[in-house]
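User: Second chain of the day. Same drill as before.
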Amino acid sequence: MEESKNSGKITINDVARAAGVSKGTVDRVLHARGEVSKKSREKVLKVIEELGFKPNMYASLLATRKEYVIQCLIPEYFTGEFWSFTDKGIQDAAELVARYGIKVESVKYDQYNLESFQGACARILANPPSGLLVAPMFRAQTLQFVKELSEKRVPYMFIDSKIEDENYLAYFGMPMYQSGYLCADILTNERKVDKVYMVRIARDKRGLSDPTVTRRTGFLDYMSEHYPNTQLENVFINPINRDEMDRVLDNVIGSDNDFKYIVMFNSRVHLVADWISRRGIRDCRVVGYDVLDKNLAALRAGTVNLLIAQHTDKRTVEAISAMADFLILNKPVPQKDNFTQMDILNRYNCDYYL
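Assistant: Same format as last time:
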């Protein structure tokens, strides 16, 4: 691990001198072994960050041949759907940390099926990874799962959305409540609004899977505060049966002769946009989420007015990198909630969203 003084590289002795500790203390911090006081550990980690010693530390840890596995529990998806972007981030991060001997794996489940989620959790608990990223869908079952992770001392993070519990290491994603509050503001846009249609996906039969509940709460709170007399109507659609979906939308929204305000809280506003296009509807304002190709096409066509967007792939890379630092460098995550920015896209700026 030592480098020559003429190599221009930072050595473990440089770190020890700058931190005012022994070389042995630095080594114990690097390998997370032995007793080191909190003050000394923080001092060493600060110097490491300042001196840019991180690559050398990773190389040293790689030489120990200890294997680390980071797993990511996410829903199954079809190409082009929201979770494909998250999985792209997982793959990008896997390439990034592979050089340090860290393996990254995806564990997928059917987001509409509780048993599928529970089966994926059971497989993880049977052979626990070094660390885990969780995209939660089923609240009660997720809370039970992370409780068992804590008992097994497996650190975990939430991505995309989070469930309030005490032991999660970090969250990377949108501020869900605020994203719903923002959505209500840009949908209504200080206009007179008599009614809002909240189009929702009919999920599992028992109604246990509801990943947008916090976002919807933010939306409802805004409406209660600013539009207390506005009627809010839930419209549930089946995304895999277009005929059934059309019947529901025709009967509920299509029969409304007034100007229509429509919102979807997940990434599938293109389903409503397709119906609007086929029915030739013009008197509506539609807001949705996420930069799926179909959503962007609807935005350009004018069947969706605004999208609230995020770079979920980049946030996933950040989450996995933070987990890697925590596992092999014993480096705390700087902040518990790492919120992504909320970008508002319309037909004029969406082609420049990178």
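The longest strand covers residues 68-75.

User: Great, on to the next one.
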